[in-house]
Write a structure and sequence with these properties.
Layout lengths: L7 H23 L7 E8 L14 E11 L2 E7 L1 H42 L5 H4 L4
Antiparallel strand pairs: 1-2, 2-3
Helix pairs in contact: 1-2
The structure holds zinc ion.
Zinc ion (ZN) binds next to loops.
Length: 135
């Protein structure tokens, strides 16, 4: 939505569309269940020993790690395949929830911009009789 929106009707229809989008996101978030506030990352390693497969471009892994925050500190833990299977869906739900929340914020900012533009188009200049300083 980078193009300059000048037309009032266009502002209106864009806001209506954004509202619908936001409504869907909000409904989805309200119906989301348990989430685990962790981030999972994947890593591949190269031992580079002798004739190892990794020297031929086939790395070891994937290895999974999780990160979590407590207070201001960030911790990380190795995740076995079994542990991964226990937390993966809950972590994905958490990630998706945050992404949708970010989308809602983006929509809100777009609506704010459009409403300001709408206002700008309707502003009238301050009349002379107000500007004039008369007893
Ligand atoms: Zn290797």
């Amino acid at each position: 939505m980078n193009k300059k929106i000048s037309n009032r009707q266009e502002i209106k229809s864009t806001i209506y569309r954004l509202r619908k989008e936001r409504h869907l996101l909000e409904t989805h978030l309200l119906n989301t269940g348990s989430q685990l506030p962790i981030w999972i990352t994947t890593q591949y390693t190269y031992c580079k020993k002798g004739n190892c497969k990794c020297t031929k471009g086939k790395p070891h892994g994937p290895f999974y790690y999780l990160f979590f925050k407590e207070g201001e500190k960030i911790y990380h833990r190795y995740l076995s395949k079994w542990k991964l299977s226990q937390v993966n869906n809950l972590a994905i739900t958490y990630k998706r929830y945050n992404e949708m929340l970010a989308n809602i914020n983006k929509i809100n900012r777009q609506i704010d911009t459009l409403l300001r533009e709408n206002q700008r188009q309707n502003l009238i200049s301050i009349p002379k009789w107000i500007k004039e300083k008369k007893g």
